[in-house]
């Protein structure tokens, strides 16, 4: 091997191992079938810059005995500087691992998560991320740990591929919430492996409070019939802890006026809505022309809507009389129309009849005159 080639190999090796972050957390999770590594975290710096201390790797067996790993342990396991690499990691690899460099010890417990056939990611391996609505949402696929080996990167949202490029940059909307999976295809010894990193993105309402407001017109008249009941429905856009109430001039003991204790609330497009009903039973004159106000308020703002009950414009006759009147009116109209039609059809006969009447008259008068 020429010196140049040697240097190149050394350079590639150092770059590959240097770019990987060492793993200091003792509990590690990996996905079955994906490339994975453990890397020793150096605590004491080496005496010489050029020094590479030997590292020994152990796997703890069922009896907590350390069994040293070597290149013959498994065809899937390789050693690379301070890395222990799995190409790929399998379910049987779970367990406790430790490494020893000089007098330093480090150990990890590895959990290997079983691959699910029907899903492109595992819910046990997601990173949760919250983004405020209308704030910048950025999803990029970067994997510095394997950057030199990555051959192809693709991005999926809820397991559906996002068309190129494999990144998203926009203002967050509620519809953007979902599982975003970056799939890194890695080439190793001519074989392709996939590494999946999934982020669970939730779009949340911003911290800023909204100005509470009652929806609809600010003043409404409601037609009512005396003796009947009415339910006044007041709907508002508000924050969780805003005050929302009915107020009206009435003594508290009036059992006919009843306000719902709780508001009925729901979230639509990330905004909290609520309605509250005021029920007035057995309506009498005294409930008319009074204002029933519905108010939503917090420290910053107040909004009020007023309802007024008015007597429904009624025809002042009882229902059955009214119905009979209509029937009679219709009957008369039909009779008149029929009469006109008959007159038209029997026009000639009518004229003759008329003339005969007149002639008879004339003969009569004639007779008298004569
Ligand atoms: C590292 O460098 C020191 C001097 O800087 C030298 O004495 C030593 O032999 C070198 N060791 C290796 C492994 O090259
Ligand atoms: C490293 O760990 C092994 C077993 O856990 C123990 O026997 C050994 O003393 C440890 N060495 C150091 C330097 O802590
Ligand atoms: C994803 O985020 C939502 C909202 O925070 C949460 O309810 C859900 O449990 C998360 N899913 C997983 C797999 O953690
Ligand atoms: C790279 O490895 C470190 C240490 O295991 C890990 O914390 C980090 O999430 C990895 N980065 C990616 C993109 O997988
Ligand atoms: C990966 O790279 C090799 C050579 O660089 C290329 O032939 C192959 O098509 C690539 N594979 C994918 C999946 O992109
Ligand atoms: C890796 O993912 C690509 C799509 O990104 C897919 O076409 C390929 O079959 C996967 N390979 C393996 C070994 O899972
Ligand atoms: C009150 O009004 C709101 C909005 O118009 C509506 O969603 C709700 O169902 C109404 N409630 C009742 C009891 O009618
Ligand atoms: C209802 O609101 C109107 C207009 O804001 C106000 O003039 C009236 O005094 C209020 N009535 C009650 C009982 O609060
Ligand atoms: C309270 O309302 C009842 C029924 O409307 C009425 O009879 C009574 O006089 C009212 N009391 C007061 C103090 O206004
Ligand atoms: C109103 O809400 C409170 C607390 O949420 C609950 O304890 C109570 O039963 C509710 N009352 C009605 C009438 O729904
Ligand atoms: C309605 O009010 C009138 C007058 O106050 C009363 O005589 C009648 O009993 C009430 N009816 C009901 C159902 O409460």
TrEMBL record:
GO terms for molecular function: interleukin-18 binding; interleukin-18 receptor activity. The chain crosses the membrane at residues 326-346. It is a single-pass membrane protein. One of its GO terms (cellular component) is membrane. Gene3D superfamilies: Immunoglobulins (2.60.40.10). InterPro entries: Ig-like_dom, Ig-like_dom_sf, Ig-like_fold, Ig_sub, IL-1_rcpt_fam. Residues 13-111, 212-310 form the Ig-like domain. It is found in: Membrane. The keyword Transmembrane applies. Residues 1-18 form the signal peptide. Keywords: Disulfide bond, Glycoprotein, Immunoglobulin domain, Membrane, Signal, Transmembrane, Transmembrane helix. One of its GO terms (biological process) is positive regulation of type II interferon production. The keyword Cell division does not apply. This is Interleukin 18 receptor 1. It comes from Peromyscus maniculatus bairdii (Prairie deer mouse).
């Amino acid at each position: 091997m020429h010196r140049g080639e040697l240097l190149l190999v050394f350079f590639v090796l150092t770059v590959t191992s240097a770019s990987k972050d060492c793993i200091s957390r003792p509990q590690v999770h990996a996905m079955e079938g994906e490339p994975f590594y453990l890397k020793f975290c150096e605590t004491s710096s080496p005496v010489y810059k050029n020094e590479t201390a030997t590292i020994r790797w152990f796997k703890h067996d069922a009896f907590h005995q350390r069994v040293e790993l070597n290149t013959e342990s498994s065809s899937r396991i390789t050693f690379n500087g301070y890395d222990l690499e799995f190409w790929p990691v399998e379910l049987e690899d779970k367990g406790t691992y430790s490494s020893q460099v000089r007098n330093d010890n480090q150990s990890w417990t590895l959990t290997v998560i079983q691959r699910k056939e029907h899903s492109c990611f595992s819910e046990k391996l997601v990173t949760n991320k919250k983004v405020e609505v209308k704030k910048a949402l950025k999803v990029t696929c970067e994997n510095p740990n394997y950057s030199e080996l990555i051959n192809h990167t693709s991005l999926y949202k809820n397991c559906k591929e996002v068309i190129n490029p494999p990144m998203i940059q926009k203002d967050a909307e509620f519809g953007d919430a979902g599982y975003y999976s970056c799939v890194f295809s890695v080439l190793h010894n001519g074989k392709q492996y996939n590494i999946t990193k999934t982020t669970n993105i939730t779009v949340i309402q911003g911290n800023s409070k909204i100005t509470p407001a009652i929806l609809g017109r600010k003043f409404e008249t409601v037609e009512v019939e005396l003796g009947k009941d009415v339910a006044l429905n007041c709907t508002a856009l508000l924050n969780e802890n805003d005050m929302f109430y009915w107020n009206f001039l009435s003594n508290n003991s009036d059992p006919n006026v009843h306000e719902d204790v709780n508001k009925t609330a729901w979230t639509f497009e990330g905004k909290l809505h609520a309605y509250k009903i005021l029920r007035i039973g057995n309506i009498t004159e005294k409930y008319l022309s009074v204002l029933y106000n519905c108010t939503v308020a917090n420290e910053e703002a107040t909004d009020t809507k007023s309802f007024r009950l008015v007597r429904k414009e009624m025809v002042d006759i009882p229902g059955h009389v009214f119905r009979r009147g209509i029937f009679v009116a219709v009957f008369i109209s039909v009779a008149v129309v029929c009469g006109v039609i008959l007159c038209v059809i029997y026009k000639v006969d009518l004229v003759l009849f008329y003339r005969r009447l007149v002639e008879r008259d004339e003969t009569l008068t004639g007779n008298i005159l004569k």
